[in-house]
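Record 1 of the preview.
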Amino acid sequence: MIDDNHVKQAGGSRVFAQEKAAAEQLLTLLRTGLPLSDKTTLNGVLIQLTDADRILAQTAIQDAGVKADAEALADLLSGDKRRTNGDYQAAIEKYWEAWHDALEAHEARECKVR
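->
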């Protein structure tokens, strides 16, 4: 991790994979007979988890600037839709794709500048 809104490219994929695994465990707990108040709390944690991944993706897109490709933006919006529909694991996957696409666009821009 570089700061709260950036992860290093080398370990970034692992961050998204771990968050996706955490979401899976939380979703498993949600399917149990927990009281509604506990399920509400777990759902809030899932939203915070996906929000964090969205911030990482959005920051990478902003860092890429005008070179951020349409695919990265489309993945970000697709993640938003999936999150809204409660498909948190798919949302995290889309946010990872947006993050990855934006980093590639940023690298391409950096190579052209040099």
